[in-house]
Amino acid sequence: MAHDCLLQLGNLSFDCCCRLTIVLLDLARILELSPQCDLFLVALRDDLRTHRIALSAELAELPIIEGDRVQMQQVLLNLISNAIDSMVVRDGDRVLSVKSETGADGVVTISVADTGTGIDARHLDRIFNPLFTTKSAGMGMGLSICRSIVEAHDGHLSVMPNSPEGTVFRFALYPPRPATA
Ligand SMILES: Nc1ncnc2c1ncn2[C@@H]1O[C@H](COP(=O)(O)OP(=O)(O)OP(=O)(O)O)[C@@H](O)[C@H]1O
Ligand SMILES: [Mg+2]
After folding, report:
1. Is 50 exceeded by the pLDDT of residue 161?
2. N or C: which end of the chain has fewer CB within 10 A?
3. What is the CA(159)–ligand 2 centre distance, in A?
4. Which ligand gives the minimal distance to the CA of 162?
5. Is the CB of 116 under 6 A from ligand 1?
């Protein structure tokens, strides 16, 4: 079953917090994320509210995937931080979309999409490099760390343009392989 919501965080409600919590709790369940989630959520909620960013969450039932809960939380945090950064510098609708789904093959896909600036085609092959940044106060480490973590979980992190504007980062995690005799 999928849950859908589109909420204006300017009027952040309990329900909205719950929805966002569900995104992370789904991940929490599959990756055994800890109650530290709460701290992450509070900071994130404040950021979204301050910058008038709406949240769209589309969440699937997810199977069990093995992984490091703190590292996965870091991946989400980095991707969401980048999404927020890309939206606050431009006018227009600001929507952060978080989606989780499971393919027929059991592969879990989690995507973080924004309606921000998009990524200059000239930068695309460098954004995952350590120290590459276009931000005055950026370290250029977020995506490099995300890719390392996802690949350490045998997963794959990719980027594509959002339609009609912005960017989508998507990472796939694979179900545990059956033990071989
Ligand atoms: N969602 C996004 N929309 C547009 N550009 C993005 C997005 N995510 C990443 N980028 C681009 O990729 C670059 C590298 O991102 P990365 O997260 O690695 O570093 P950073 O955000 O600049 O700094 P930090 O180390 O603080 O995360 C960014 O500077 C930005 O140019
Ligand atoms: Mg970053």
Report:
1. yes
2. C
3. 14
4. 1
5. yes
Domains and CATH numbers, the chain: 3-173 (3.30.565.10)
Q: Which atom of ligand 1 is closest in space to residue 134's alpha carbon? A: 29
Per-residue model confidence (pLDDT) at position 6: 36
β-bridge partners, 114: none
Place of tokens 């859908």: 4
Question: Could you say which ligand is closest to the alpha carbon of residue 88?
Answer: 1
Which of the pair, 108 or 35, is modelled with greater confidence? Answer: 108
**Does residue 156 have a pLDDT over 80?**
yes
- CA separation (Å) from 153 to 150, 167, 181? 5, 23, 22
Ligand 1, atom 20, residue with closest C-alpha? 140
**Residue-wise pLDDT tens digits, 1-16:** 333 333 333 333 334 3
Find, among 96, 44, 76, the residue nearest to 149 by Cα: 76
The mean pLDDT value for 53-72 works out to 73
Tell whether ligand 1 has an atom less than 6 A from the beta carbon of residue 135. Answer: yes
- 139 in contact with ligand 1, CB cutoff 6 A: yes
Q: What is the DSSP letter of 130?
A: T
Q: Is 170 exposed, middle or buried (0-12, 13-18, 19+ CB in 10 A)?
A: middle
Tell me: pLDDT of 95 over 60. Answer: yes
